[in-house]
Specification:
453 residues; mainly alpha; DNA polymerase, domain 1; 22 helices; 3 strands; 1% strand; metal-binding; SAM/pointed_sf; glycoprotein; ubl conjugation; Bifunctional apoptosis regulator
């Protein structure tokens, strides 16, 4: 910078200003210019890469980046006024400080480069600005446009699948046994119930048909009757399996649900609640099942995910009986380790066991659990790298309060929500959540530092 006066009339006023020439650059510490006038209001040191906000205040670039990373707010650290867009370096002010205080600025730049925390903060701040610029210029292009197209295509496919599913009556043909009292069962209903027990039950289908066993006769059957002709069930494991399932039918008064769709028909609101709750907070949801639905849901879930050590030659009907028994300490130990560290793996193992019954649905659930595990791992990694582990209890309490309040609100509003809306929410959470989570995982892996906790 060099002031040159060509007008004699302005000579007096120009003489009052600092005259910067090549000879005067070596004397920056004049009485009119001091480092205090070019200091940052965050670190109170000379400005390095000064950044000017919309409010007019100037800060070091790295000070502003560290403030943004810790507060997650786009506001001035001094006056708390929100800035617009992405702050840029004031080039004129930067050149002035570099020329007036060269030695001090070079020393501070070396200190900043040697500090890894400041380097990570600057990188995260710059990526935030890059993403902000791309979102404004390419809001209809790139990955977002691709995933929105995928969602639209999958929505059309899902609507066609649901229309076919409802029109074919796959669920309706079993609804009668789920809702129909056992005493009103016809002989055809009894045979259909027997088929649900497994392939081994086909051996005894003919005797039940010959005797024309209806619901009332089924309730009168006991171990002695099953031993005698015409049933002649000599296999003890087969007999115990039939009696165990018969006891469940007598206790419930109807056929208990044995797959996802039957469970949804019987417990429409509960299935929707569990589907969303398992995605948002699997540990709290499993604890809820342990407290309020132990025998019907929690025990079969635990035995499926953490099976007991059995003999190689154990039959299918014996394993069916084991799902109603109390778990061993080995099963509890395995379950608790997975419950604390890998809760989504438990859900994936449960879905894998039902792969033969729910082919595509189980695959959607398994993919979704993998994506949710990655998202949970990224959240823990951010807590660790940002040294905010101390905030974990507060975040856990906020999450617990949020889940409890949402569950209470769902319990109040559920009776007033139309069944069609509940079905849409159920299938959306079941089939579309993996597609949304894919986009979230891509964002986390590409820009992990810019994600806010």
């Amino acid at each position: 910078m060099e002031w040159v006066s060509s007008d004699d009339g302005l000579g007096g006023s120009m003489e009052a200003l600092p005259y910067l020439s090549e000879s005067s650059q070596s004397v920056p510490s004049s009485t009119n210019i001091s480092e205090h006038e070019f200091s940052c209001h965050c670190c109170y040191d000379i400005l390095v890469n000064p950044t000017t906000l919309t409010c007019g205040h100037n800060f070091c670039r790295h000070c502003l980046a560290l403030w943004w990373e810790s507060s997650h707010k786009n506001e001035c650290p001094e006056c708390r006024e929100k800035w617009e867009g992405f702050p840029k370096i004031n080039i004129l002010l930067r050149d002035a400080t570099d020329k007036l205080f060269a030695e001090v600025v070079q020393r501070r730049r070396a200190e900043i480069q040697d500090n890894p925390k400041i380097s990570r903060g600057l990188l995260a701040f710059q990526r935030y600005g890059d993403n902000l610029g791309r979102s404004k210029t390419n809001q209809h292009k790139g990955a977002g446009f691709f995933f929105s197209g995928v969602l639209t295509a999958l929505t059309c496919v899902a609507v066609m699948v649901l229309v076919y599913h409802w029109s074919s009556g796959v669920v309706e043909q079993h609804e009668m046994l789920i809702s129909k009292p056992v005493s009103h069962w016809t002989p055809e209903d009894v045979v259909s119930w027997l088929e649900f027990l497994g392939p081994w039950a086909q051996l005894y289908r003919e005797p039940f048909q010959q005797e024309n066993v209806n619901g009332r006769l089924l309730l009168m059957l006991g171990e002695e009757e099953l031993l005698k002709a015409p049933y002649s069930i000599d296999n003890q494991a087969h007999r115990r399996a039939i009696l165990a399932e018969l006891d469940r039918v007598k206790a419930l008064g109807v056929k208990p649900p044995q797959n996802l769709w039957e469970y949804k028909v019987t417990n429409a609101g509960k299935s929707l609640f569990l589907l969303y709750a398992l995605k948002r907070s699997p540990r709290l949801t499993l604890f809820y099942l342990y407290l309020f639905d132990y025998s019907e849901t929690f025990l079969p879930f635990l035995h499926t995910c953490c099976p007991a050590i059995t003999n190689i030659g154990q039959s299918v009907e014996s394993s069916f009986l084991n799902t109603q028994m109390e778990p061993s300490w080995r099963q509890w130990a395995e379950f608790l380790v997975k419950y604390l560290l890998l809760p989504y793996q438990l859900i994936a193992e449960f879905a894998w066991d039902w792969l033969a019954v729910h082919y595509w649905t189980s695959r959607f659930i398994i993919v979704n659990t993998m994506l949710l595990s990655v998202l949970e791992g990224c959240a823990l990694w951010r807590l660790w790298t940002r040294a905010s582990i101390r905030s974990m209890p507060r975040k856990m309490w906020n999450h617990l309060w949020k889940m409890l309040s949402q569950g209470f609100a769902f319990a109040l509003l559920w009776p007033f929500v139309p069944q069609f809306v509940c079905n849409c929410l159920f299938y959306w959470a079941l089939y579309f959540s993996p597609i949304i989570n894919i986009d979230l995982v891509v964002q986390q892996l590409m820009h992990p530092e810019t994600q806010a906790l």
